[in-house]
Write a structure and sequence with these properties.
Blueprint lengths: L1 H32 L2 H4 L21 H10 L6 H7 L6 H6 L5 H12 L4 H14 L1 H8 L1 H8 L6 H11 L3 E5 L5 H8 L4 E6 L2 H10 L9 E5 L12 E7 L10 H11 E10 L6 H6 L3 E4 L7 E3 L3 H11 L4 H10 L3 E3 H4 L6 E6 L1
Parallel strand pairs: 1-2, 1-4, 2-3, 4-5
Antiparallel strand pairs: 5-9, 6-9, 7-8
Amino acid sequence: MTTLLNRAQTKWRRAEPAIKKFEAGLEAEFETIFSPKEKTLTTGPLFNNPFKLEDLSVFDGETLREIIEKEAFGVKISDLALSLQGVEGPLVDKIRPVLKGRKLAQFQRETQRAAPRPEVEAARRKVLDGLFWELTYWKTPELYEELTEGERLHPGIFRQIGPDLQGKTVLDAGAGSGRATFESLKQGARQVYAVEPSPGLLNILENKLDSQPAGSRIVPLRGRFDAIPLEDKSVDVAVSCSAFTADPEQGGEPGLAELRRVTKPGGKIFIIWPRREDHAWLQAHDFRYVALPLDGEMKVRFRSLASAVRCARRFYARNGAVLNYLRSRRRAEVPFSVLGFNPPHDYCYLKV
């Protein structure tokens, strides 16, 4: 016993310098990653919208028209006009042609009205906060990809729905950078139409095709939930992963009508990782809900601690507990319970 103890102590002494060096490296990384305010953060949020009004120029004319005509994402024409007071150049030139009738008249009135500076700034914050996720998809798709690759789905989801995908023509609506697209391919889908409105995310997906042995079976297409660029009854199965919601801007009634239109009779529509607040809406539209059992707590697993902090600052900054957790644990992972929303272990399906 004494000999074994001595050997263990000898091994520890030899390993101790390397362990201390590793711990010192972690401490140094901690010092460079977190700002002074973040190192002492307890509960308060640090959200500071990184986008500027000029970033709206990233949208094409059709997307701007959809946002303005439908006042999508809570962006009212009055707020948009106010936010543009004092702004000239390409953005205004891009917006004016998509305005017609009353909206054009209202836009002109609001842009010419002498509004106090705080009112203009409040309108800008409202517009940019409303469009935060759309600007993320269009302006910084690489950072969104960095987030979603850490939000790993429960492995049982695609194992369960796999038999419905094997040998079938599949639509991935709101495909993003291809999370459900490539999973469908792994499950033996004959062909996958990856439909995504954001050019940046679609470009990331297209770049991945070269490294996929069966990448030729994927067809990337620009399109929205309410305007899927496919013929009637052209797919056997439609899936949408963490994209379709009950809100009209991200699906809703028009989006569901489109999913029904392109799916063959007898086929299925799968909504993977639905929002909790959409469960009642989905149930009212005859979707059946499936939640897979959890073997321990699910976590978002980032590329590195630096990646985790970068994503937390951008996407979870309204929840001060996330940065606080990263600061205290110093690991590149965060439980979904800390994030405050349900883990990706569920889906809904509808038979057409």
